[in-house]
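Letters spell out the chain; backbone shape is given numerically. Both lines appear below:
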Amino acid sequence: MKRSREVADQGMTLQVTLADRADAAPNRLVIYDWFTRVGSPPRAGNDVEVLVDGEETWARVFQDLEVAEDRVQVATWLMRADLEMVRPEALATAEPAERASLRFAELAERLAERGVKVRLLIWGGTYTPLLNRWLRRWFWKAPFGIELLEQDHPRLIGSYHQKTFTIDSRVGYCGGMNVKENDWDSPAHRVFEPRRNPHKTGAAFRRAVQARQQRTKFPPRHDLSMRIEGPAVHDLEVNFQQRWNQSLRHQRASLVGRLANLIRNTLLRRPAHTLMAEPEPRQPEQGDRWVQIVRTTPGGEEGILDAYKRAIANARKYIYIENQYFRSPIIGEAIARALDRNPRLRLAVVAWPVADGEVSRDPSGYWTAHTHRLIAEKLPDFKLTRLMIHDADAAKAADRYLQVDVHAKVMVIDDRWLTIGSANINDRGFKFEAEINSVLLDEDDARALRLRLMAEHLEVPDAEIEEKLGDIDQAFDLWEQHGAENARRKAAGEGPISRVVHFVQKAPPKPPFNIGQGVF
């Protein structure tokens, strides 16, 4: 017979359920130190892969989609379904027709043809399907099995920025990559990369890129995603179901939405969209990782912000950040407090400079500079980091410094904790934008990710990673050395020693147009 026992120790009272058999399931005690109490609880028993850059991520998603049997659910900010998910070197200079089957659009329709239910949820209004031929097809005359909905954000300044995939309730993805053609690159981030072009780009242009005679149309892009198998997939599904039903109810209540549905359902005889039932937690435990799915919602859920603040407060050794934006005074103040507690805390922040770091009338520049200043008051030598690659054209006429489009939203703390998702470091992303992140508490994965990212950007060979980056202080010392030296070399017109380039964002003394921190 099961019994309860209360244990009091150091002011904490625990109620433990005792099993009546030695082989019964063990108790799990979760202390909310690294996890937030906002939103979904942390889930034990997950298997996790941290995927870096689009080449690795989209190839893995493509592999999982190909074996889907029941349903696929995709949430993305914008969608350009000509995205080639797999881009083999052998097809780098092939004509579009030879690469067509590797696009997300073609794969989605193949899934629908074999009976897989494909639901696509994007940000926008009822007008959105007019903007893209695939979206028009799927909204107005979609093949049976594909449903597309758009979701308006209730604020004028706000969007549904989440990026998730779930497949058969078995596997989920949470990260920063949109289903868009430019959200792809290899870790090499080459200046002249024929595969980093729109799908429709022909073989002749691609060969010219390969020969370094033409510049690649899309800039190099850096991003991450987390692949999850296990109980945390349920929380990704619940988030999608809640948003789908909100969107459908809003569409049914609006005049424009009702008119669109009348045309679509009655005149074009397309099946009506249906509300989704709440998914059942069908995912068994698959591994030993603790994962928590955290969100920002227009309704006021601030789980991502709380997760960031908790992790920063817990930092004892280092904070490593990569983010498209670094313009949240809330996070600047949290890091400043952490430095007050521990002046030896190491810090690296990879972000985009606004207007190439110069003074501009863009309010984003002001808030980036302000966030930096909050930290520099405690750590005077601290500089932000941009990623830049360097190469010369075929005639050797011009050495190019080309900025890597850092679209990542990742933070790693103390080789112990990490988060990957859609949330940018701006107050809008933490307060009311619709965002979703995955949080992973695992020493092996956190350390492996720090080593991998630092090695990629510092261009450390695999055989030397442990020697040069294994020790935290030594790794951050190397980062600081490269950042300062590459900034000097760039200013002098010399080639860099790696991709890590320090910068300081310049800004006017006041926010342009008096635009507050919650907007940009």
Notes: Confidence is low (pLDDT under 50) at residues 1-10. Residues 223 and 408 are 4 Å apart (CA to CA).
